[in-house]
Amino acid sequence: ALTDIIVVIPAFISNEESHVHLEKLVASLIGLTIIIVDDASPRPVDINGAHVLRHDTNKGPAAARNTGIAAVTTKVVACVDTDVTVTTEQVATLAAHVIDADVGAVAPRITCVNDGTFIGEFESHHSPLDLGSVPALVRPMSRVSYLPATVLVCNVQTLRTVGGFDDSIRMGEDVDLVWRFIENG
Question: Using the 8-state DSSP alphabet, how is residue 121 labeled?
Answer without folding.
Answer: H
